[in-house]
Amino acid sequence: MSKGLYITAIVGGGILTFVFLLLGMDRKTQEMMMAVPIPIVIVTIFHLMLVYKIWDSIRDGKPRTTPGKAVGFLFIPFFNLYWIFQVYPGFADDYNRYIKEKGIQARPLSRGLMTALAIFIIFSIPVVNWIVQAMAVSKLCDAVNVVKKK
């Protein structure tokens, strides 16, 4: 799983969205507002791909959900505000249990970082959000790559 690709798509897309929104505040560049959906779609697709891949990586353990449910339940209005905490912090718990049960020599995932990721996905604060996402996506890609090697 390419860490650079996911960080660039997710964080870069967020930055691009923010820039487009700032530019759109000026009446002269209102046409730019039409381009805002493009990075939003890119970020969303890569987030959903990431969610599917992380849950797929521990499928042969005893995860709390399947990759399809992890992605699908994010589309349920209001329930997704609860579910995002099952997707990321819940994955950290299940991943840590998985590597322990399988005897895989890997660094455990930080539940705190994954909780911060879920919070900042809901309450986006520019710059802080991008830093947390870059750190979390990096750790998630490393985790998946370690498990896939075994």
Secondary structure blueprint with pairings:
Blueprint: H1 3-24, H2 37-57, H3 67-72, H4 79-87, H5 89-102, H6 111-122, H7 128-149
Helix pairs in contact: 1-2, 1-7, 2-7, 4-6, 5-6, 6-7
What labels would you give this structure?
single chain, 150 residues, mainly alpha
Order of helices and strands: HHHHHHH
Spans of at least 5 consecutive residues whose pLDDT stays below 50 are none
Would you count the extended β strands for me?
A: 0
Strand content bin: under 5%
Structural class: mainly alpha
Please, what is the average pLDDT? 89
In short:
This protein is mainly alpha-helical. The chain has 7 helices and no strands.
Q: Any overview of this molecule?
A:
With 150 residues, the chain is mainly α. It has one domain (3-149). The protein is built from 7 helices and no strands. It has helices at residues 3-24, 37-57, 67-72, 79-87, 89-102, 111-122, 128-149. Helix 2 runs parallel beside helix 7. It is elongated and about 55 Å long.
